[in-house]
Every structure is written in structure tokens, then in C-alpha cells.
Design brief:
The protein is an alpha/beta fold and 897 residues long. The chain is built from 25 helices and 33 strands. Among the domains are: 120 residues, Chitobiase/beta-hexosaminidase domain 2-like (Chitobiase, domain 2, 2-Layer Sandwich); 196 residues, no CATH class; 155 residues, Immunoglobulin-like (Sandwich).
Length: 897
């Protein structure tokens, strides 16, 4: 029987369970979100006494005539403006604001006329008035006194929908499985929503499922607890409306039946294409499938008619309909159509439910999985998609950027990569051609690169993203995934640039943005700091595995391993993994060399420090603590990369071992100081370390103190042990000598030692000066899988071999920077010879040592699998996203004679 600790490891699918996973600090930042947006007058307000020639004296400003507001949705605006004026010590009622209902170009548009005798605001709706009042607040803040510029301002939104997510609401996913619609917690305090309306955010998404939310006449098992969820959803919708924020339901529907459920046996008439990845897709061309989907959507919008819309990943993330499966052609109904036609049909069926409800809500079809489609099918989908549906594409996914003279591929979500990607451009051009509504999925505050801070202060990147979006008439932006959603200058940039049509003056636009928050006295300097931050941050290694597993999120609390452990790197988007991994190559994997990653990250640090030196704000201002914390995180990231570069040199005896060890000691000492420096910042800024998708803190004072203690112990123990080995003339790091899991003979592979790993399955390996030869025997139907580590801790591309055809493991193409000509380059390193013998097959795979980078006879490692038989099996393997279905201890050492 497994020990309790082992059961926990299995439960949370981790190699090393973080001791702080269930020992988290309280989320004190919620108190800040509940506190008033305006606590004091704006920075330097009242410092200027005289108006300029192009300004009016707006002292004694007040609202004289209000806009018609039968639903009371502007009461929050009036209250906020009143508090703002009170803190600014406005006296009397000398300068009136007259708000009139009138014709404007679009919803949320407004016109402001500033004259000597008062201000006139004209809008056709409450939301235009909301935007106008906050614009006036911003202008008074900018001018640092009761002054307004004479003349007329006319503004309308070009990107009409700006949708974010609750910063601390539960994800409704493992391992915590919290459901915000089923508890009694208020995840949207009034002043939190007030921050959103100030920033121009007008939408929030909430994740749920139809199974949890709605009863069904088709699938009888659905809807348990649904009434309670619907009631809370109604209350959230009502509350958010007071701040001009619409609520969107996000659900992946119809969710395919899982193989371990019995539902697919109960409802066979709904099934479509073949089972894939443990799920049975539901076919919406079946009578019951169609009935279920239309009924569910219609019911949702009938029960909650004021919902803003429904957001659905119609392709990707999970298997839902036949079109979401690459085996769609196996469905007897959908197989008659193209994949694009099928997806368009399914989208139309989902939208039909909203049409029947008659609320006018939006349906946004998010094709997250389009990175796996060919572009002709994407264009076909756009062509056939309904005209009353918004088509949303990832703005950054499948983008390409030059870094250090090499093309890198941006997969998934990015802030540092501007875009738009070729995937988005393909969709955007088709949307323009066929006159379809287009949304963009972006990350506005932060992204997978670094999500343990509320935001990365680089609004210039948002300017460039929105500039790119305008080219394709993007009408809506989903601003975040589970992370990247804290109300900040970045959301405010989104709200501001959504109203821009002319993007010719980036410097001027950023000055306006910044001055509306910090005033014009500080704005120029802050803008210069932001320029350096942006310049630095754009050097973030464009490599999704560096985002998923790299040291930037929480390297500040990573343990360092001088003596190799061969432990996997922790997942940055979860709390369960202890940050103890040392397989540094897992965060680089084909995308960057260790040296390249160091160069790029050092550029981030250099520019970030220049920006920090320019920031001239109070010591405890949130932008100061945030920016300093980011500087420490970037610095720790570089230190960790350098530490493992030096460890590699020490292990391979490249250079003076005493000097190398001394440099490693200095890095550990620096990291102790970095962790110490982060602690007071965490006390000052309670948001630091919190990761919204992980639903908790990746670092905080107690965890940092534990790391400091661990590093101090490291210096006393492992460093002393290695110093002793060096003094005795031994190999500094024994791991690099390898162990005799398999001894490769030099010469003909038929003379090599044969290892049996299953019935009729075996292998043998030899080498010569030019090649490494892998001889494998198995059954004809077997998939042969192999992957080397020619540099320890740096896994090479894993290869699949079947029917005589050698391919790269699919994850290499989706996550590991193997794209375009690189696919053939990877397979071209090997020659394959196949011999059939009845039901069995033997492969001789020759690998070119020069092309593989193994030109000396140092120890290497191999993972080998034939069918379901592994050479090296692991008691509790952990398979993690993007790293292919393999685990570190499934590799065995190969030594030469």
C-alpha cells in the first residue's frame, strides 16, 4: 500500500508536493480591492495655481443636469465623481456640467464641449456618459488642478467590448475545483468594480458548465444545484450592471462524454466521431445533440436575460463536437462536410439558442485549437460562419519573431510578443473578406511569461497590439485567461486605446494615458521608465516552455541543486509542485540554448534597472514596489540560468573547478539576498506572488524564508562535499560520470548487447566514430518511441517510428519549437532501415553524431518505448503539459566502452 505522502503525490500528480500548497497566506489584497479608488487627491493636485491660455478655470465644478437613468446604472459614477471632487477640495458650485441625451456615432460614444461658462456632455446612452465623466476625472488629474482644455472632444469606441475576469475568483478546475457560482463569497466588491469601470473594462467572464448550471430534458443527469448557481449568477449580473460591466458565461459546450462516465452508454444517439483522448464528441447533427444544445443555451438566456453573452471554446482545450476532433470525418453525418463547414454549423446551432431567447446577447466562438488547423480550413470556417456571431482568435498564437538571429515561435498566450500572429492575420483577413465580426484574445496585464505579479507595466506593448487589431476591425478583446486580470494601468491602456483610430503617435498616446493616472509632472519620467521596461521585456525568450517551466515566475523561491537530482521543473501555473527541480533544459527544449536564454534575460535585467532608476515616486507607491519586485524576479531568473550553466561546466570539467564552484557560491549568496529583499516588498504589496490560475501564492515571506534557510544549508553541505571531492582529485559531480544502465559497444549493432523489455520486444545500441545505432525489435502494430539526452538535463526531440516512417513526437511541434524546416531537420539526423519478420518488425536507426551534437564519448541518456513496454519504468511518473508524455526517470544512462 502506498504511504500517505505517496497518495498525496498521486492525487496531485506531482513528483514533489509543495509543503505550502495547503499552507497559504490570506489574500489580504482583497482589502485593497475593497478600498475606495480615490483615497486622496491625485498626485500633485493643486500644485498649479494658474490656468494656461488654452484652459478654463473649472474650480467649483459640479454636475448640474444629469442624464436620464431609469435603471440607476450611473449612480456609481455620480458617487465616485462626488468623492473625487471632495478629496480634491472642490468648493462651491461655480462651474456646471450639463449632461444631455443626443445622437452620437455609436453606443458608448460621447462628446464633451468645454467652454468658459461650463461643460456640456452629449451621449446617446448611459455608457457614453460613464466614459465621459471618467475622462473629465482624468483630465483634472493630468492638469493637477481644476483646469480643463477648451474645445470639443469627440470619442467613440472602435473596440467595443473589453472583457476581463475576476482576479481572485476560483477557476472551477482541479486541483481545488472551487465554483464561484456555488458559494456565498462576493468576488466582485463594489470598489473592485469601480476600478474596472475607471479602466474602461465593460465585461467579465465566469467559467461554468451546463452540467452544473442547467437542467436538461435530453441529458437527465444535468443541473444538480443549478438553481442556486442561477440565482447567484443573476445577482452578479445585476451588481456588475451598476458599473457598466456585462457578464459573459464561459463554458466548453457541448462537453463530450468522458470514457470513464456511463453517459455515453446512456445516450448513444448523441454520439458522433470516434472516441479521442478519452472523450466521445457529441454530434450536433443528431436530433438529440441539436435539441440539447439549443435548449440549454435558450434556457440560460431566458433564466438570466441580462447576460452580456456566451463565450465558448468551439475548437480546442477539450473535445466537444465532432468538428473539435481531428477524427470528425469518422462521423457518418459530419464526414460529408469539410471541417470548417462543420464548425460553422455547430456555431450556428449554439447561436440559435440565443436567437430563440431573444435577448440580443452575443455569442463568441473562440477557436483556441486553430493552431492545429491548416489555413484553408480556417478560411473555410470563417466563410461559412454565421454573420451574427463574433469569431475570436488568439492574437499571439503561432507568431514568429527573430531573437538573436533565429526565428522563434510564439505558442499560446504572450504579452512580450506584440503580434498579430500569422494565425490571427489569416483569420482577420478572412473576416474582412466575408464581413464577419472579429474578436481578439490577448493578455493585457501579464501572461504565461510571468503571472505572479498583478501586471507588467509595459503599456506601450498594448498600444502596439491594439494598433495591430485595428487593421482587422477587431470589435472585442478578451483581455485575459485565468491570469492577467488585475485592474491596473494595463487595463486602463486597453480601455483608452479602444477609443483610438489614429495610432501614429505612440509617445503622445502613452503620455495621455500616464498623465491621467499620475499627473503631467511625473508623466514624462514614468513614460521613459515604461519605455525601458518595454524594451527589456520584449527580450523575454519566446519559447512557451520557458513560460510554463522557467524561473521567472517564482525563481526567487527555487531551491538550487549543486549535486544533480534529475528532478523535473515545477509547473508555473500550479501550486502543487515544490520548486526543487534542476532539469533546466526542460524550460528551453529546442527553442533556445542556455547561453541564448541568459543573453536575452540579461537584456531584460539591464533595461529594467534603467527604468527603475528613472521612477520618481514615493517609496511605497504600488508601481514602485511592483517594479522592484519584477527587477528581483528577473534577476533571480538570470542567476538560476547561470547557476545551471556553471554546474554543467563543473560536471563536464570545463575550466578550473575551484573557480567555477566559487562563482556558483556567489550566485547562491546573491539569491539569498534577493529572497531577503523580496520579503519587505511582499509585506508592502500583498498582491505579490499571487497567481490567479494557481489560485494562490507562488512566493510569500514564509516561503522565501524557507528558501533562504535551504540555500544556507546548501552552502554548508553540498558545497563542502563538492569542495572536498575537488581537493581529492575526484570528479566534482559524480552524476556526470553516468551509471552503467547500458554499455554501448563500438562497432556493428548486431554485436551489441540485447535487452528484452517485453514479449518479442528488445533493443541493442552501438556506436562508431560517425553514428550511434539503435536496433529495435517489436510487433508490427507497435509504435516505437525514443528520445535522447546528448547533454544531460537537456532532452532532445523525442521521435516516433511506425510503419517505417520516422516522425517527431507531436508535442515537439506544438510546444517545443520544432516547426517548418526544423521538422525535417530533426528527422533528417537519422537513417531508418526496416526488416519485417512475420508479425514482428526490426528497425535499425542510425543517428549522425555530428548532427546530434554528440561528438565526444560522454555519458548520454535514452528513453525508449516499444508499444506499451518501457526500458526504464518509473514508480510514479508525472507527465506535464508541453514536455511530451515522458518523465525524467524513464531515461536510462548509456555509457561507451
Amino acid at each position: 500500500m502506498a504511504k500517505k505522502d505517496d497518495r498525496l503525490l498521486i492525487q496531485y500528480d506531482t513528483k514533489h508536493l509543495d509543503e505550502f500548497f495547503e499552507n497559504q497566506p490570506p489574500m489580504e489584497f482583497i482589502d485593497e480591492l475593497k478600498s475606495p479608488v480615490h483615497k486622496t487627491a491625485p498626485l500633485n493636485f493643486g500644485s498649479r495655481k494658474e490656468k494656461r491660455d488654452d484652459e478654463v478655470d473649472a474650480s467649483g465644478i459640479y454636475i448640474k443636469e444629469y442624464f436620464p437613468d431609469p435603471k440607476g446604472v450611473l449612480e456609481t459614477v455620480w458617487a465616485d465623481f462626488s468623492n473625487f471632487l471632495k478629496l480634491c477640495e472642490s468648493k462651491g458650485e461655480r462651474y456646471p456640467i450639463i449632461i444631455k441625451e443626443g445622437k452620437t456615432d455609436s453606443f458608448e460614444a460621447y462628446e464633451i464641449n468645454v467652454a468658459e461658462d461650463g461643460v456640456e456632455i452629449v451621449s446617446g446612452d448611459t455608457e457614453g456618459v460613464r466614459r465621459a465623466i471618467f475622462y473629465i476625472e482624468g483630465e483634472l488629474t493630468k492638469r493637477e488642478g481644476f483646469f480643463l482644455k477648451k474645445g470639443t472632444v469627440k470619442r467613440k469606441p472602435y473596440i467595443k467590448d473589453r472583457v476581463t475576469r475576476g482576479f481572485f475568483s476560483p477557476t472551477n478546475r482541479p486541483p481545488k475545483n472551487g465554483d464561484e457560482l456555488f458559494d456565498d463569497i462576493d468576488y466582485y466588491p463594489d470598489e473592485y468594480l469601480n476600478r474596472l469601470q475607471h479602466n474602461g473594462t465593460n465585461g467579465l467572464w465566469i467559467y461554468t458548465s451546463f452540467k452544473a448550471l442547467l437542467t436538461s430534458s435530453v441529458i437527465k443527469e444535468h443541473g444538480e444545484g443549478g438553481e442556486k448557481r442561477i440565482e447567484k449568477l443573476r445577482s452578479v449580473v445585476k451588481k456588475c450592471a451598476r458599473y457598466g460591466v456585462k457578464v459573459y458565461i464561459f463554458a466548453l459546450e457541448p462537453m463530450g462524454f468522458y470514457d470513464w462516465e456511463d453517459l455515453y452508454l446512456k445516450y448513444p444517439e448523441m454520439l458522433g466521431s470516434e472516441l479521442i483522448a478519452g472523450q466521445h464528441p457529441i454530434c450536433l447533427r443528431t436530433e438529440k445533440g441539436k435539441e440539447f444544445m439549443i435548449e440549454a443555451v435558450e434556457k440560460l438566456f431566458t433564466l438570466v436575460p441580462d447576460l452580456g453573452g456566451y463565450l465558448n471554446i468551439t475548437d480546442g482545450e477539450r473535445f466537444t463536437t465532432c468538428s473539435s476532433s481531428r477524427t470528425y470525418y469518422t462521423c457518418p453525418r459530419c464526414g460529408k462536410y469539410t471541417r470548417g463547414e462543420n464548425l460553422a454549423y455547430n456555431v450556428d446551432i449554439i447561436k440559435e439558442g440565443i436567437r430563440r431567447a431573444g435577448t440580443g446577447a452575443q455569442f463568441i466562438s473562440w477557436t483556441y485549437g486553430h493552431r492545429g488547423w491548416d489555413f484553408d480550413n480556417i478560411r473555410d470556417y470563417v466563410k461559412h460562419a454565421p454573420t451574427d456571431v463574433a469569431l475570436m482568435q488568439n492574437f499571439d498564437d503561432m507568431g514568429y519573431e527573430e531573437q538573436l538571429g533565429k526565428t522563434r515561435q510564439a505558442v499560446d498566450y504572450w504579452l512580450s510578443y506584440v503580434g498579430p500572429s500569422i494565425l490571427f492575420e489569416t483569420t482577420g483577413k478572412a473576416a474582412l473578406e466575408y464581413n464577419k465580426t472579429l474578436w481578439a484574445k490577448m493578455q493585457v496585464c501579464c501572461s504565461h511569461e510571468l503571472a505572479t505579479v498583478p501586471y507588467i507595466p509595459t503599456p506601450g506593448i498594448i498600444f502596439e497590439k491594439f494598433k495591430g487589431a485595428r487593421k482587422y476591425n477587431v470589435s472585442g478583446v478578451l483581455e485575459c485567461w485565468y491570469f492577467g486580470n488585475y485592474p491596473s494601468i494595463m487595463n486602463r491602456a486597453s480601455g483608452e486605446f479602444a477609443f483610438m483610430d489614429d495610432f501614429s503617435d505612440k509617445e503622445g498616446a502613452l503620455f495621455e494615458l500616464v498623465s491621467h493616472v499620475w499627473g503631467e509632472t511625473k508623466a514624462k519620467t514614468i513614460c521613459k521608465a515604461f519605455d525601458f521596461f518595454e524594451k527589456g521585456y520584449k527580450n523575454y525568450p519566446i519559447n512557451i516552455l520557458f513560460s510554463y517551466y522557467g524561473p521567472m515566475h517564482d525563481g526567487i523561491c527555487w531551491d538550487l541543486q549543486l549535486i544533480p537530482k534529475n528532478w523535473p521543473l515545477s509547473r508555473t501555473w500550479l501550486l502543487v509542485d515544490a520548486p526543487v527541480g534542476d532539469r533546466i533544459g526542460e524550460c528551453l527544449w529546442n527553442g533556445h540554448t542556455l547561453d541564448e536564454a541568459i543573453i536575452l534575460c540579461e537584456r531584460i535585467c539591464e533595461n529594467w534597472e534603467k527604468g527603475l532608476q528613472l521612477l520618481d515616486l514615493d517609496e511605497n507607491a504600488e508601481l514602485m514596489t511592483l517594479s522592484r519586485a519584477l527587477g528581483l524576479l528577473f534577476n533571480s531568473g538570470v542567476n538560476i540560468l547561470n547557476f545551471y550553466k556553471l554546474r554543467k561546466m563543473l560536471g563536464k570539467r570545463q575550466g578550473d573547478p575551484k573557480e567555477i564552484l566559487a562563482e556558483m557560491r556567489k550566485i547562491v549568496e546573491k539569491e539569498i539576498e534577493n529572497s531577503k529583499a523580496m520579503i519587505p516588498l511582499c509585506h508592502a504589496d500583498k498582491r505579490l506572488g499571487y497567481h490567479s490560475e494557481a489560485e494562490g501564492f507562488k512566493f510569500f515571506p514564509e516561503k522565501l524564508e524557507r528558501r533562504i534557510s535551504n540555500l544556507e544549508t546548501l552552502l554548508k553541505t553540498e558545497f563542502s562535499e563538492v569542495e572536498k571531492r575537488i581537493e581529492e582529485g575526484l570528479a566534482p559531480l559524480e552524476y556526470y560520470l553516468g551509471k552503467a544502465d547500458y554499455i554501448m559497444k563500438k562497432g556493428n549493432p548486431v554485436d551489441a548487447t540485447v535487452v528484452n523489455i517485453g514479449e518479442d520486444r528488445n533493443f541493442a545500441i552501438s556506436y562508431d566514430d560517425d553514428n550511434i545505432c539503435l536496433l529495435m525489435t517489436g510487433k508490427k502494430e507497435d509504435m516505437f518511441k525514443f528520445g535522447f539526452e546528448f547533454e544531460l538535463f537537456e532532452p532532445d526531440t523525442n521521435m516516433n517510428l511506425k510503419d517505417g516512417i520516422l516522425t517527431v513526437e507531436p508535442t515537439a511541434k506544438s510546444h517545443q519549437q520544432v516547426f517548418g524546416d526544423r521538422i525535417e531537420e530533426k528527422t533528417g539526423r537519422f537513417e531508418v532501415d526496416m526488416t519485417e519478420n512475420g508479425d514482428n518488425v526490426t528497425y535499425l536507426v542510425k543517428g549522425d553524431r555530428k548532427k546530434l551534437g554528440w561528438t565526444d564519448n560522454t555519458p548520454i541518456k535514452l528513453r525508449l518505448q516499444i508499444g506499451d513496454s518501457l526500458w526504464k519504468e518509473e514508480d510514479m511518473p508525472t507527465y506535464a503539459l508541453g514536455k511530451a508524455p515522458l518523465s525524467p526517470d524513464e531515461y536510462g544512462f548509456l555509457l561507451t566502452e
